[in-house]
Amino acid sequence: MVHTISQVLVPTLPKSITDTAVAAGLSTLASLLTQAGLAPTFSGPRSAGNYTVFAPTNAAFAAIPAPLVDWLTNPRANNSLALANTLKFHALSGAVFSSAIPVGGTPITTLCAACTPALTAFNVGGVVTVRNGATVLATVATPNVTCTNGVVHVVGSVLVPSNQGIPTLDVVQTAISVPALSTLVSALTSTGLVPALTIGPATPSFTVFAPVNSGWSGVPASISGDLTLLTTVLQYHVIVGRVYAEDLTVGVPVVRTTLAGQTLSVLRNANGTVSVTSATGNVATVVGANIDTSK
Question: For the domain bounded by 17-155, which CATH number is listed?
Answer without folding.
Answer: 2.30.180.10
